[in-house]
User: What shape does this take?
Amino acid sequence: MKKTLCAAAILLCAFPLLAASPVTDIELLRQEARALVKNGTRWLEIDSNNDGGIDHVMLLARNGDKIYEEIDMNHDGIMDDLCYYKNGVIIREETDTNYDGKIDLWVFIREGVYVERYAQDKDFDGIIDITKEYGAAKR
Ligand SMILES: [Ca+2]
Ligand SMILES: [Ca+2]
Ligand SMILES: [Ca+2]
Assistant: This one.
């Protein structure tokens, strides 16, 4: 048990730097993202359609830069879209496109706008079926 916990902690630390997370469970990923909370960070919670439920959550750095973001795209109370930022610029987006609580689309973004790579689980079985790389121009 202790060993598993240790491995999880290591995974947590390495997580923002890794490629597609092997973890697809949204709730688990949301828990892991809580490790991004540091001294001076703050949460911003938004009810974008005024239905009384929070559907957009952001973790902000002390200077206001976004660190992490969660969006409930279909307003069912369950977050479906997770975004990760570095220096306030988006680097990765993980989406549950069929709203089953599991991530099935990973998009890696360069300089905040360019899609560098994406991976998709098209049949929602937890196994990635498509990966596509859009590398920078090779020299
Ligand atoms: Ca949802
Ligand atoms: Ca899904
Ligand atoms: Ca699949």
